Amino acid sequence: MDCATGSVAPGANATRCDACPPGSFQGAAGEVACEECAPGSFQAQPNRPTCDNCEAGYVAAEAGATSCIACAPGQYVAVNLSTV
Question: Rounded CA gap, 26 and 46, in Å?
Fold first, then answer.
């Protein structure tokens, strides 16, 4: 089955498409697995083709994040993914 972006076919002989859950995405049509958002990005909604980058001052330290958290006092986001 050729599923649209943001969703996947749950198996080789699938007759339906399943939405990728929050924290994941699928940017290509016809895929069979969702991909986790990389550290530094998040996806709060299901059925999405991309993940969003965290805003300045916020970070998603682990893959599969559904939101970003504020950097701790005395820290800042240096280069998209890291905190110092």
Answer: 10
Q: What are the tens digits of pLDDT across the range 11-70? A: 878 899 999 999 999 999 989 999 999 999 999 999 999 999 998 889 998 999 999 999
Pairing of strands 24-25, 18-19: unpaired
- Contact (Cβ atoms closer than 8 angstroms) between residue 41 and residue 52: yes
This prediction has a pTM of: 0.83
User: In angstroms, rounded to a whole number, what is the distance separating the alpha carbons of residues 25 and 40?
Assistant: 14
* Strand locations in the chain (E): 7-8, 18-19, 24-25, 35-36, 41-42, 52-53, 58-59, 69-70
- Token pair, residue 19, equals 């939405």
